[in-house]
Amino acid sequence: MRRVMKAIGTGLLVATLAASSSGFSLLGPYTTWQVSQIGYNLTVTDLGGPMALGEEYRLTVPLLTYGFDQSFLQFFGTNGVRAVEAAFQVLNDLPHVTAITDDYLLSTNCPLDSSGVNFTAQGMGILDLKSTVLGMVVAQMGLASPERYAWTLRSRTVTTTTPPATNYLVVRRNFDPITLAPSSFVNGTLYTYDIRQFDPPAVPQQFWDAVESPVDPQASTYTSVAGADDSGGGNFIANTVNTFALGLGSGEFLRGLTRDDIGGLRYLLRFNNFNIESLAPGVSNVVRSNGIFGPSGPSGLGLPSPYGPTFTGTNVVLNLTNSGTNAIIVGLRPGIGKVSFQKLDFDSFLYTVVSRPVTNTFIDVVITNSIVTNQLVQRIITFPDILFTASDLGVVGTTAIPFRYARTLVQGRWINNAGTNFITGTGPVVAPGGPGVIPPTTAAGGGGAGAGIIFTFSTLTPSFVNSTTNSFFQNEGTATPSLSWGYFDQSTIFAIFPTNTTLQELEALVLRP
């Protein structure tokens, strides 16, 4: 019996360790304390800061559209479009959150590492467009890099004593997707930290940070897809002893999402995550001919929640008909459950839709006046929510390294609803960083103004860097590859960009005699 009990205990220990060896981080606009001195908002390309649980920002519509302008099509061509579509297919294949159970997260459906290396692409200095897009979109869905924020500074203060002392407050902004407890793990790898000082010219400005490193030096590191966008496209400091390991490297590619990426999205989109939110801009009610808005079901009743469960309790009333003519704008809402992505064809010269607008109709579940109800709403999409472009983005600081890409930042665009979700207490109070929502689009207009998210990729490719630190002689023979875009998997390079560039041409430049 003791042997049986020992085996059961061992099994429970393994299950507990497996469930607690994960972590995701939440992204949001910088709060008042997230300043450059302690490692936040370091460059113009830094996207946002890590949020605490309950301060998350999330999408509130189930469908986002994407499109390509003429600059992208001219540079990347149809193969570039295929690479982007492959990234969105990974997200479209993600199940509804009701199917993402704890067992699902711990299964082979959610790998701890989805990355691979194409060594030919690595030798040529080629970056994978599909993987880059996947990381960028996951960040725009509300996930930050867990490898960067497993440990992070909350404050740095210097005393007035003699001699002065410097005090650092270190916190974790990384959470286990099953227990939701603070976690030092990311995809099974345990991280510790060292507080380091960074000085120019290696970085744009002096700052301090709690820099993560694996406890096991042999463990897989920097595996999350959410962390792939952490460089902000600059790649200004990568994989050196005193700096961060940021972004994807040449030849690296992502097969799909990891366990912690999926767990983080589950937290954002799950039903039991209720926040007070308004209907997204452009969303309106759908009115049936009988004057009742909401989907028609048996006996004229409205359809139940798309999540399926029936609500019970003495203080909650379920209203299936939701009669009336006005949509409920503000209310307590759950996560949307799943976000899908659809290509929207439009005139990339005139920035107008050339096909019929997409009408996305969905059920909005909302609690107002202690009544759980649903209403049928719609969003008419006449311009891509996500727009892909290409341009000369220049170089990073005083280096000769091109910015890889630029994208719409979250500051000033994501909407903070903390004022309606929190009651401020007494004494010193720090304003909550959230919760909030991620608007799908902006006001309609020409020149891409209707897109809520704009991704722009550098056209300074293929490019090469000469530096006096490398060699006294500054010529083609001493240059090193800097940036080339491609689309590849483990064994095959499907395309090199700009369009019509061949691998043989790139090899001739890189592997010159």
Describe this structure in words.
By secondary structure, the protein is an alpha+beta fold. The protein has one domain. It is 18% helix and 27% strand. The strands form 10 sheets. Strands 18-4-23-27-24 form a 5-stranded mixed sheet, with helices on one face. Strands 6, 28, 29 and 30 form a 4-stranded mixed sheet that branches. Strand 21 and strand 22 (371-381) form a beta hairpin. The longest helix has 23 residues, at 70-92. The radius of gyration is 24 Å and the shape is globular. The N and C termini lie far apart (72 Å).
Keywords:
alpha+beta, 513 residues, four-stranded mixed sheet, five-stranded mixed sheet, globular, single chain, disordered N terminus
Chart the SSEs and their pairings:
Layout: H1 2-19, E1 25-28, E2 49-51, E3 57-58, E4 63-68, H2 70-92, H3 102-105, E5 115-117, H4 119-124, E6 126-128, H5 129-140, E7 143-144, H6 146-149, E8 152-158, E9 166-171, E10 185-186, E11 189-198, E12 207-214, E13 252-254, H7 259-269, E14 275-278, E15 283-285, E16 317-319, E17 330-333, E18 340-343, E19 346-347, E20 352-353, E21 358-368, E22 371-381, E23 386-391, E24 405-407, E25 415-416, H8 418-421, E26 436-437, E27 453-458, E28 463-465, E29 480-488, E30 493-497, H9 503-510
Parallel strand pairs: 3-26, 4-18, 4-23, 6-29, 16-22, 23-27
Antiparallel strand pairs: 1-2, 1-7, 5-13, 8-9, 10-11, 11-12, 14-17, 15-22, 19-20, 21-22, 24-27, 25-26, 28-29, 29-30
